[in-house]
Amino acid sequence: MEWIQLPLGPLQTNAYIIYNDERSCLIIDPGGEEQKIRQFIRKKGLQPKAILLTHAHFDHIGAVDTIRKGYSIPVYLHRAEKKWLSNPSLNGSSRYEGIQPMFVNEADELFTKDGELLIEGFSFYLYETPGHSPGGVSFYFKEDGFIIVGDTLFEGGIGRTDLPGGQEEQLLKSIHNKLLTLPKDTYVLPGHDGVTTIGQELDHNPFLK
Q1: Do 87 and 107 touch, CB atoms closer than 8 A?
Q2: At the topology level of CATH, where does 2-208 sit?
Q3: Residue ranges of the Metallo-beta-lactamase domain (predicted)?
Q4: How confident is the model at residue 164 (pLDDT cuts 50, 70, 90)?
Q5: Kind and range of the H or E element at 154?
């Protein structure tokens, strides 16, 4: 299994493309700049199978509909944010100057609970990690030693909780009870900025002391 990080859109939100030896791929959080996603897929000769969303804030969903339609693939999102994609007040796109209100079609499939999932040949563990938003989830690829966490945990930081549905206590509980229990050498792939590890955050993240 291989992955690439693509910072996209006005907030340089990290999209991830996960792909295997069969050249199938999953697209995580396509926040914008559809052409960059397509360029990488074309370069590698990949076949997209699904879009997975860690949560439904506007900077993570900007290219969802164009990618979904272009490749005829389903979109997965946690049920707690089912109505967020089409609601600019909930997805946050109406809160910022210079950002057009964002109306995205509803997800095709909804996550409902923690557990092992198999989607189009990709096996991973879904962790519910709310706090930054009510339906925040993380995707743990155990055999490959990485977890995609959206805006839950960052290098030296944690997700903001001042947006609709955010709760700091809940966020810290998600981090401590779910993420920090993983092996220390697990790579953490966040929604913004660079990659870190569980061990590095245990040792150096001031918000987790």
Answers
A1: no
A2: Metallo-beta-lactamase; Chain A (3.60.15)
A3: 12-192
A4: confident
A5: strand 153-154
